[in-house]
Amino acid sequence: RSFAQSLLRFLGFIFWGSAAVQAFGGVLVILMFKNYRYLFQEPYLSLPGWLALAVALILLPTGVLAVSISVKCSRNQQGTLMYLLLLLLCLEMSSAALACFYRIRTVSQLESAMGYLVYQHNWTCSQDPGSSAVDAMQRRLQCCGVHNYTDWLKTSASSWHLPACVPESCCKEKHSHCGGDLGHLEQLSQEGCLKKMGDKLCFAMLYMFWCCTALSILELLAGVSNGILMRHQPFHDLHFL
Q: Mind telling me which residue stretches traverse the membrane in this protein (predicted)?
């Protein structure tokens, strides 16, 4: 019983720290899909992030109850803690499953989405919606084209430019006004946007998956510890039944 109390107290403090970790992961996923919404059309893709924020909010009172029960056992508090742990477990397993599924699905769709934006790009018209999306993506990720800068040589717009060039958004940050001239490749970003965006997406989703998995294990330990304490405090007031 003393070990269960100590473990529950320790897990209570861990839950408070985990709330910040979950909140960070949720905000990371939500902002990623918001900033690159022109690549990800489905609005529900940010659902794992919102679930992570809900988990972070519920973790705060759960940690308070865990520490409180470890000091003074209360039947009402023990029952409430069990309900919260069950709710957290359902939310986290849902978030982990969605993150794993969305990572596989969205990575396979990235190439076609980026290819469409690049090949429809017309950098002679800055007001074109497709152009602004591509420029924003290339400046934010410091990349050029889908796989590399040569993707721009395959577009219909490239035939109008002599000598061959790429959009200015391909320029490196320290050469932001290089003009996109292919005669100065050292001033252009060499890496393609597909790899950079894929790495960013995989990091966010794997972060969510492993955080939810690790936290679920800790919650199972908290549930077992709480169960041990409840077993040592039988329902004396129900003995008359």
A: 7-33, 45-69, 81-104, 204-224
Tens-digit pLDDT profile for residues 105-125? 887 788 787 877 777 666 553
Measured CA to CA, the distance from residue 225 to residue 70 in angstroms comes to 10
First to last CA, the chain: 27
pLDDT tens digits, one per residue of 79-112:
889 999 999 999 999 999 998 888 888 877 887 8
127 pLDDT band, cuts 50/70/90, is very low
Which pair of structure tokens corresponds to residue 232?
């040592």
Within 8 A by CB and 6+ apart from 109, the residues are none
Tokens of 1: 């019983």
Residue located via tokens 């790009």: 121
The DSSP result for the chain, as a single string, is -HHHHHHHHHHHHHHHHHHHHHHHHHHHHHHHHHHTTTT---GGGGHHHHHHHHHHHHHHHHHHHHHHHHHS--HHHHHHHHHHHHHHHHHHHHHHHHHHHHHHHHHHHHHHHHHHHHHT--TT-TT-HHHHHHHHHHHHHT--SSSSGGGGGGSGGGGG-SS-B--GGGB-GGGTTSTTBTT-GGGB--S-HHHHHHHHHHHHHHHHHHHHHHHHHHHHHHHHHHHHHHHTS--GGGTT-
CA distance readout (Å), 236 to 4, 5, 227: 21, 21, 17
pLDDT in tens, 170-184: 888 777 667 666 777
